[in-house]
TrEMBL record:
<protein>
    <submittedName>
        <fullName>Uncharacterized protein</fullName>
    </submittedName>
</protein>
<feature type="region of interest" description="Disordered">
    <location>
        <begin position="111"/>
        <end position="131"/>
    </location>
</feature>
<feature type="compositionally biased region" description="Low complexity">
    <location>
        <begin position="118"/>
        <end position="131"/>
    </location>
</feature>
Length: 131
C-alpha cells in the first residue's frame, strides 16, 4: 500500500488546488457559491491534516478497543455506501480514476507517515488544525 513520500506536502497542496479550481468551475457554471462543496473540501482538508496521536500508555483496555472497532466499523460502512454510489456513476468513476494520483497518497498513509509529514517545516505545508 502506498503512503506519504518526501514530496507529500506538495501532493496535498496539488490536490486542494485541483479541488478549488473544480469548485470555481462549478460555481461559475452554477452562477453562485457552492457552500456545501466548500464545506466538504474544508472537511477533507482537515481530515488529511489529522495526525493520529501516539499511544501514551502501553496498554489499552477491552472497552476502548471495542469502542474503537465500533466507531471504525460505522465509518467503514459509510465509506462502502459512498463507493457503491460512485461505482454506479460512470462520470464519477472516471473522474476518480483520472485524479487518483492526487488523492491516493493521502488516504493510504499510515500513522507514522502522517506524523512525519506533519513535522515538515511550516513553509512547505499548511499547519495541521488543532482539535
Amino acid at each position: 500500500m502506498g503512503g506519504l513520500t518526501n514530496d507529500e506536502p506538495q501532493k496535498e497542496s496539488d490536490l486542494f488546488q485541483f479541488l478549488n479550481s473544480m469548485l470555481q468551475q462549478v460555481e461559475e457554471s452554477g452562477g453562485g457559491p457552492e457552500l456545501e462543496l466548500r464545506s466538504k473540501i474544508e472537511a477533507l482538508k482537515t481530515e488529511t491534516q489529522k495526525v493520529p496521536q501516539a499511544s501514551t500508555s502501553g496498554t489499552i483496555n477491552e472497552v476502548e478497543v471495542n469502542n474503537s472497532l465500533e466507531f471504525l466499523s460505522a465509518k467503514l460502512a459509510k465509506v462502502q455506501s459512498m463507493i457503491a454510489e460512485v461505482e454506479s456513476d460512470p462520470d464519477a468513476k472516471s473522474f476518480l480514476q483520472d485524479s487518483a494520483s492526487l488523492w491516493m497518497p493521502l488516504i493510504t498513509a499510515n500513522a507514522d507517515q502522517r506524523r512525519a509529514a506533519s513535522s515538515t517545516p511550516p513553509d512547505s505545508q499548511t499547519p495541521p488544525s488543532s482539535k
